[in-house]
Each structure stands twice: as C-alpha cells, then as structure tokens.
Amino acid sequence: MSFDDRLVEITGERHGVAIDMVYARAGNLTGRPIYAAARCLLRREAEVCLRRAVELAGLAGLGLKLLDAYRPASAQALLWKCVPDQRYVADTRVGSNHSRGTALDLTLVDGDGTELDMGTGFDAMVDLSHHFHPDVPPGAQRNRLWLLGIMTQAGFEPIDDEWWHYQLPAARSFPMLEDDRVTCPPG
Questions:
Q1: Which of 2, 5, 91, 105 qualifies as a cystine partner to 68, CB 3.0-4.6 A?
Q2: How far is CA 107 from the centre of its chain?
Q3: Which residues are bridge partners to 42 per DSSP?
Q4: What is the radius of gyration, based on Cα positions, of the chain?
Q5: CA 147 to CA 60: how far, in whole Å?
C-alpha cells in the first residue's frame, strides 16, 4: 500500500471532531458511494488549522462535523460528471482543492452533536447556499457567520458559493495528490 505522507488521517478521537464522510455512502448528490472507504485525510498544513478551528469552536460550546476532505481525482471526475457546474464542483481540467488535500467541507454541531441549522443542507447546489444570501433566515445566517469566523480565524478561507467549504489560502499552489487510502469503488 502506498500513500502520500503529506496527508494526515483525521479521526474523531485524535482531532475532537465528528466525521461523516458523505461520499462514502449513497446519500449524496451522486446517489451512490464514490469512496470505497470513509477515510478522512488532509494535508498537514490544513490539519494544523483544523486543530485550531476545533479549539475555537469549543470556546463557544460547539463542535465541528467533517463531511468531506481529501478527494482523489477519480472521485472528482465522478462529481463533475454529475454536476458540471463550476460554481459548485471544480472542473477536472483545473482540479479540485479537495484533490490537493487543502480543502474540507464541514458544519457546526452543538454540544450534543446535533447539526446547527445552516439554511440549506450540505451540497445543496442552489443560490441559497452562497455566503450572505439575503433569504437565509437570521438564525441560520448567524450559524454560518459563527462557522465563517471560526474557520477564518483558524487560517482557512471560504469560497463564495458554498457555506460548508473551507480551504487553505493559495490552495491551488499546492500540487494534486494521489493517495490510495481513499479510492473509488469498482464499477
């Protein structure tokens, strides 16, 4: 088994996060698993920022739930085939920051592990998912702002169209990575 040692495995126990790798099960926008196993990996630089984000969320009695992290290029191609819209899925010719190990998708949870209302679900490919959309109810907008503040203070940056997506600054300057700990299922 070979893997890229620039990627660190994120676990709930070691990192103090909840993990639900959405693309490892059928309940995602493709309707089928695109990962053979639910492994959560991030580039070492992003893992350092994640640890800081966990600390900051804890100050408010909140936690983080990770929904996606490193994504192999083959899985990115499956997403692009399903949703060929550059606002929400990176074109495979450019490459995803998830495939660089520099991006993660996440949400906030309360002390009981219940997800906070963010106004839309994860991977809702609609305008309402954009940061600061005027139709997001105040409570959900407040939750988005909490997540935004936590993540940016921890060293990540958002993208405009997805409240759940955060990445390292200059994420595209990092090379694409291939790591066989996250693979697509056969067929």
A1: 105
A2: 9
A3: 8
A4: 15
A5: 11
Q: Which residues make Cβ contacts (< 8 Å) with residue 55, sequence separation at least 6? A: none
Alpha-carbon distance of 80 to 83, in angstroms, equals: 5
- Which of 47, 157, 162, 178 is flagged as catalytic? 162
Give me the tens of pLDDT residue by residue for the chain, a chain 187 residues long.
Answer: 456 789 999 999 999 999 999 999 998 888 889 888 899 999 999 999 999 999 999 999 999 999 999 998 888 888 878 777 677 777 677 789 999 999 999 999 999 999 999 999 998 989 999 999 999 999 999 999 999 999 999 999 999 999 999 999 999 999 988 877 887 776 6
The CATH number of the domain covering residues in 7-173: 3.30.1380.10
Whether pTM exceeds 0.85 = yes
Reply yes or no on whether 178 is catalytic: no
Closest CA to 163 of 109, 122, 113, 102: 122
Q: Is the dihedral of CA 100, 19, 109, 55 positive or negative?
A: negative
As given in the structure block, the two tokens for residue 148 are 């935004």
Listed by start position, the domains of the chain span 7-173
Distance separating alpha carbons of residues 170 and 187, to the nearest angstrom = 34
Give the C-alpha separation, 23 to 34, whole Å. Answer: 5
